DNA sequence: CATGAATGAGGGTTCATTCAT
DNA sequence: CATGAATGAACCCTCATTCAT
């Protein structure tokens, strides 16, 4: 939501007025509380009341900022996942080989996970018997662009003519699950994870290098 | 309760009496309705009332069979996923090489997905902006056994000394995402998917064979 | 479940047949379970389900014996309190003085309490902040007869012309509360309690004898 | 919550604003409805819904004021019975003899009953076969203090060394039952009742004065 | 008669949402 | 804008009672 767009007639100080600051703080408070609740009970079971309860705000105030919990959730996704897009694109442009290209994608993704663990917790609930993963639209879009790149690489003969559908899915799957494991380590190393994922998918298990360093596991 | 009194002619209370049949039918009706609701709105947002509503039972009847929606959900998992376990074990025992072993695992999993798509729909919700994946405990157990096997293979020098943590995660990720894609195809071929996943993870992208047949995509 | 018994329409053996015995046992089981439940949560909050649950019987069976929880409760009162009536009357007839008469009444009442503590527990609930006392109709009737006797004694000049209304109430109150205390003692002595209550009401505090023996208190 | 922002003209949030008035009225409405229901069916059988139904409030509103029916009940007790405590204490301090002391206690209690009959109705249900009495914690505490005073009097030789346990119980019993009778009279006279109860317990039946006035009875 | 599953009314409680202050 | 009480729908669950077996 572009706050700037709200420019109303008579020059309401839109920049640093105390009012505007409070508004941003309130909005942020709701977003953070919502992230907590979503992470704890899932979006489906979350309630607006519970979100507001973890805030200093009154229940009615919620509706000055959002219209529903889905609305907050979308805002959370937008704020968080969108930030990954430009870097992915940059990585793609900078890549000089298929290896560096794929490894770059993995790395951006893992960096993003590690730097925004709080947000990822929302997408990664362990409730009772279940582990839940959510693919945000942004992620899907990112990986769709990857798919296009792969198809281009195949067209240019850089890659064998494989099932791109399956391949993209497999890459996403590897990214998510390895990313999840990564987050549970005590000192997560996105670079190492990216190297692993790239080596696995490009070279296969048999070509994977020997482990040199022991890694902390949960 | 006088047990002796049950001595009536042809076999007593437990097998084919009308009562017992009705009970099984009711239980099944609840399970099916629950699978529907879970698939539509997720376990978190599902309500017992909604489940019962899709049944011709009275609301209170639900509690003659289950104690909560989580209980139904667990029953769904048990009924469905548990059936995969014996086959996984058989596959493991029959394997003569690391290739056949891993491919066997993938195949059992994909077969299971295809043969029980309804159940998998519960675990695979596309609601609004999200795609949700659930890892059932059974699946985790299955893949944990796989992890042990991998570690044993490493110990015997059959595989390089890689990060088994990451590897297992990656295998699970591939299985899930490729499985998901598989289910969206018009004539899903579990065998082909298993071959793909095995080749990818064992041999890497570069060693993947050329596609021979074009496959219908969604 | 005595299935066999169904076969005999005419000439149901009414005395010692297995059927009749079972019926009595069932009835008794319900009464005892009900006494328990009433004692724990009170008649108002008690539920038939809970009563039946403490029984080996099926829920429907309850209705072969009683029609409601109030019905069971009435049966409990009848069984228990009615037994006190004849003794009270006997005591009254045997009394040769006002002292022996009042003391006799108290003693019958306290004897009854001690010998039937389980029943009295029903009438004496301690739930949360409350101590509840119930006056059964039988008790009221018993004390109303007492009132008549007192009025007669006044008419004959054996007692001063006091407020019989208040006096009867006071006697009932003393009986109930002293009885309650009595029941909480480790070795309750109805005779001592009766002596105390009689001395108090007839002679007043100042005329009460010195305590000779120390009494166990809760 | 910005407290400063509330600085509007005539006094802020806590005293006479329309909101605050309504809140008090609603709370009172619930309390009164609850007293009615409790008096009719008892606390155990009372339902929150029935309480709210006798109010023009919505069902959910109840929970803005209380958390359970027990909570309302406790509020009723607190509002009502606690008010008796200070007067009891005053009476005790002012007493110059054992007679005036005990009579004072009785009088405060009877005054309280008469002046708050509605509240006492809650504690005094006649439903079907039963008459129920409740001893609130406040009353028990009040009488326990009395017990201490009695023990002190015995220590000082002002009273014979009697069973204080029984004596306190007896006093409570007399207070309750005589109080109950008192309330059913058309023009209840707490002073007369207190005199009667004191004379009975201190002097015994035989020492009771002759009745001078006939009293209306129910 | 005993059984125990089915029924649906009803009670407890939470919730999203509104709106006077 | 913020507040937070009121609202009533809807949820969870238990219950009394019936009735086919």
Word description of this protein:
The structure is a homotetramer of 218-residue chains. Chain A is 62% helix and 5% strand. Chain A has 218 residues and is mainly α. Chain A folds into two domains: 17-77, Homeodomain-like (Arc Repressor Mutant, subunit A, Orthogonal Bundle), CATH 1.10.10.60; 82-207, Tetracycline Repressor, domain 2. Chain A is elongated and about 60 Å long. The relative contact order of chain A is 0.09. The interface between C and D is large, with 59 and 58 residues. β2 of chain C pairs antiparallel with β2 of chain D, so a sheet runs across the interface. Chain D binds a DNA duplex (21 and 21 nucleotides) through residues 1-2, 5-6, 8, 13, 17-19, 22-23, 26, 47-50, 57-64, 68.
Main sheet: strand order of chain A? 1-2
| Total DSSP helices of chain A | 9
Name of the level-1 CATH class of the largest domain in chain A: Mainly Alpha
CATH superfamily heading of the largest domain in chain A: Tetracycline Repressor, domain 2
What Rg of chain A, in angstroms, do the CA atoms define? 21 Å
Mean of residue pLDDT values of chain A = 79
Roughly how much helix do the residues of chain A carry, as a percent range? 55-70%
**Corresponding CATH architecture of the largest domain in chain A:** Orthogonal Bundle
Largest sheet of chain A: 2 strands, antiparallel
- Low-pLDDT segments, ≥5 res of chain A: 1-12, 212-218
Shape of chain A: elongated
Distance between the termini of chain A: 39 Å
The number of E-state strands of chain A comes to 2
Structural class of chain A: mainly alpha
> What oligomeric state do these chains adopt?
homotetramer
CATH topology of the largest domain in chain A: Tetracycline Repressor, domain 2
Largest interface: pair, residues per side: A-B, 59 and 58 residues
Strand content of chain A: under 5%
Element pattern of chain A in H and E: HHHHHHEEHHH
Q: Structurally, how many domains make up the residues of chain A?
A: 2
